[in-house]
Request: fold
Amino acid sequence: MKKWMKTAAAALTVAGVLSVGSAAMAASAPQSVKMFINGVYQQDVLNVNGRTMVQLRAFNDPAKISYTYESATKTIIINNTAQKKTIRLKDGLKTADVNGKSIALDAPVTVQKGRTYVPARFVTETLGGTVAYNSTTKQVIVRTPTGVEQFETLKSGDLAKARELALNLTRLNNGIDVRPYGEGFTTVYTFPKGEALRFFWEYKGLLNYIEINVDGLAEMKWQKDTLGVNGEAGKEPMPFGESVYFSDHFMADLLSYGTIDSEGNRTEIDAITGYSKGIIVPIEGEVRTDTK
Reply:
């Protein structure tokens, strides 16, 4: 019992030191750029001496990276088993211990309100991720090692896998926010034939059009309440022409999918009950045409 209590206490300590913060923190630390980690907007970012500091726990990649906290020395320990790296960090230090070697940081490790921040470039480059700055949009694009692999799949990998990744990206509404008026529990996703980087998403009578941009971010471009109550916003895209659709009938635990011809006629290919592998399934004979 005592051993279990110690383990639980240690877990709570790590969660407290490395926890992802809320939007409230952003108000006390204004940021000049927007940061995205694996496509998710980070509200809790610091700017220390002109350096962008990312909350360490937001760089989350459980398949490759683990975090622990050594309370006796107040040290954060990061393990990357794939790269055989162990990193030790302490609040206030402008150096990090990487496999026993001292590495200089652009800005000191900073702990505020129980949250640990480190320079974005250091954590990505040291742990095997990537960081890039889009000067046009003033956005910092960060990816964990797994995020890098997923981005490559999204851009040029297997069509079905790329579509599944596209659906799971956090969607940026860019000020476009039309509310659904209808009812129901069925969601329909429609992709142009051979493509994964743009799609329609329809739920409760609200039709949404999403594009994946060059930075791998899912942007809402257009919305329309097809029931004619709440209007529309954004610019309506051109029709897709030949397409494929995937209908998630959530309450019935049913997935149906098929093709749409250039005239808008649908042909169902199959319907699967109890499907748990994702919304997207491969369409026989379909070849990807939008690789970048």
